[in-house]
Every structure is written in structure tokens, then in C-alpha cells.
């Protein structure tokens, strides 16, 4: 693997830091299918012949399709937003309001990157009516990821982007595919609330349904499915029948960080080929 490639979006739960360890767990195959593509760090740092990259966030998928097909036009329009006068609270809220009123995919894509880099913590969050509602982030000089956009665009020539849920993504798998699932993570405690990405979020029922779909796909259709999640008793229970491995998460030991409990990553692999060879 050559130099690690960063995604051009900031993303909660992005896999950039874990990519080397995660890559070791990904089975070989012709095409990688990602039902939860997010910022695309796994796609950017692996070498499959082709990719099927899915997400239920329409803004994310539209953005990727535009970067795939019109990188120069996109870069020119998006770069114009990264100027000092746009790094003001009033400007940010004006853009956010325009974004929520617009249905133009290109304009929304330009505004999406602007809000991703100027909004609080790079969060992507919508209210119940579908309005983007992340507050202003107050950063000194938000970075414009031109290099990263160009790399993404180049790599995206061997990818197909679809705005669909994970069940549909599984249904589109064919011979030679490998599936990697990076769902919104299970809560560390039953009181912890889910991060709501789109609409109703991802409930415990969804976690269980995804586990079942993964298990059945691997057993009945013979595709390997790798899932990552927090390594907690709940996920080990959910992913029964899978082969488990753990990735140690870097722990930042500092006064400030002590309140933030980091949990190791669980890699759960359903691979019927593995079981049949080892029965």
C-alpha cells in the first residue's frame, strides 16, 4: 500500500486511523461492496478491481457522483466558498438556510462540503423534516481538500455509487464480491443515544437485522461479509457465528481525554468458505 489517502470529508467514525489493521481483515475478491460508505476511507485505501459504494444519505451520494464525473467544475465552485468572508457565523447560517431550501444537486454538493468543513466537528446531522442542522464550528482557517477531491475522483472511475439501504446493497451482490459493513455503532450503554444520521437513525433492531442479513448472505450465497463495531458484549452476541478479531484503538492518555472512554473495534467476519474448510 502506497501513502495512506485521506477522505475529503470529515466524518464521525471514519476509518482512516484504523485502515492498516482493518485491511488485514478484508477478504480478497473482485469487487468491494460497502453498504455504509461514509467518507470512503476503506474505498480509498484498498485495491479491489471495482467498488459498489452505497449510503442512505442522498447528499453524500450526489456529491460523490458529481466529484466522479465533474471534478474540475466542482473544485472551482467549492473552492470559491473557502474564503475568509465565508468563515463567519452569519455566512454559514445563510448557506445552511439556502442548502435546506435548494433541491439542486450541484449546489447542495458545493454547500455540503462547505458545511462539512465549517460546521461543528464535521458533523452530518438532519432534523426530522430533513433540514441540515449542524451549528457553526468557529475554525481559524478551514482546509479546502483539493488534493483529496482529485484523488477521490480518479479512484471513483472504478466505482458505482448508489443511494440505497443496506438490504438493497446486499441484494446487488454477485460472484466475486466482498461486503464490508461499517454501520452506525452500537451504543456503549443502553442509555447512550444513537447518533442520528438520517431520519430515524439506526436502532438496536437495525443492528440485529444487519447481523442476520450478513450471516445469511455469507452462508446461503457464499460471500464473505466483514462488519466492524464497538467490541462490547452486545455486538459479540449479535454477530454470533462470525469469526472475531479485535483492533486495538489508540488511546490518547491525557488529562482532558481521560473522560473519553475508547473501546476496541470488533471485526466480525462471516465467511462460509472459511467454515467449510475448517469443519
TrEMBL record:
What processes does the entry annotate via GO biological process terms?
DNA replication; DNA restriction-modification system; methylation; mismatch repair
Reaction catalyzed: a 2'-deoxyadenosine in DNA + S-adenosyl-L-methionine = an N(6)-methyl-2'-deoxyadenosine in DNA + S-adenosyl-L-homocysteine + H(+)
Q: Which UniProt keywords apply?
A: DNA replication, DNA-binding, Methyltransferase, S-adenosyl-L-methionine, Transferase
Q: Which InterPro entries match?
A: Ade_MeTrfase_dom_2 (IPR023095), DNA_methylase_N6_adenine_CS (IPR002052), M_m6A_EcoRV (IPR012263), MeTrfase_D12 (IPR012327), SAM-dependent_MTases_sf (IPR029063)
List positions binding S-adenosyl-L-methionine: 11, 15, 55, 182
GO terms of molecular function: S-adenosyl-L-methionine binding; sequence-specific DNA binding; site-specific DNA-methyltransferase (adenine-specific) activity
Q: Which EC number(s) are documented for this chain?
A: 2.1.1.72
EC top class, as a word: transferase
Homology family? Belongs to the N(4)/N(6)-methyltransferase family.
Which protein, by its recorded name, is this? Site-specific DNA-methyltransferase (adenine-specific)
Amino acid at each position: 500500500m502506497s501513502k495512506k489517502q485521506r477522505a475529503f470529508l470529515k466524518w464521525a467514525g471514519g476509518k482512516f486511523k484504523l485502515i492498516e489493521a482493518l485491511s488485514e481483515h478484508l477478504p480478497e475478491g473482485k469487487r468491494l461492496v460497502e453498504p455504509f460508505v461514509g467518507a470512503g476511507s476503506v474505498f480509498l485505501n484498498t485495491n479491489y478491481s471495482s467498488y459498489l459504494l452505497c449510503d442512505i444519505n442522498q447528499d453524500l451520494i450526489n456529491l460523490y457522483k458529481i466529484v466522479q464525473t465533474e471534478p474540475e467544475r466542482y473544485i472551482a465552485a467549492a473552492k470559491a466558498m473557502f474564503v475568509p468572508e465565508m468563515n463567519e457565523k452569519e455566512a454559514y447560517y445563510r448557506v445552511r438556510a439556502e442548502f435546506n431550501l435548494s433541491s439542486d444537486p450541484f449546489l447542495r454538493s458545493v454547500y455540503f462540503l462547505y458545511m462539512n468543513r465549517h460546521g461543528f466537528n464535521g458533523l452530518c446531522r438532519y432534523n426530522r423534516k430533513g433540514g441540515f442542522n449542524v451549528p457553526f464550528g468557529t475554525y481559524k482557517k478551514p482546509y479546502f481538500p483539493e488534493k483529496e477531491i482529485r484523488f477521490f475522483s480518479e479512484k471513483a472511475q472504478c466505482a458505482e455509487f448508489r443511494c440505497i439501504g443496506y438490504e438493497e446493497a446486499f441484494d446487488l451482490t454477485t460472484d466475486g464480491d466482498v461486503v464490508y459493513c461499517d454501520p452506525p455503532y452500537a451504543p456503549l450503554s443502553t442509555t447512550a443515544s444513537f447518533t442520528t444520521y438520517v431520519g430515524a437513525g439506526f436502532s438496536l433492531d437495525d443492528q440485529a437485522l444487519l447481523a442476520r442479513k450478513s450471516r445469511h448472505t455469507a452462508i446461503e450465497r457464499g460471500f464473505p461479509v466483514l462488519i466492524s463495531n464497538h467490541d462490547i458484549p452486545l455486538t459479540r452476541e449479535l454477530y454470533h457465528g462470525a469469526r472475531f478479531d479485535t483492533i486495538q484503538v489508540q488511546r490518547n492518555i491525557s488529562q482532558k481525554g481521560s473522560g473519553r472512554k475508547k473501546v476496541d473495534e470488533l471485526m466480525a467476519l462471516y465467511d462460509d468458505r472459511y467454515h467449510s474448510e475448517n469443519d
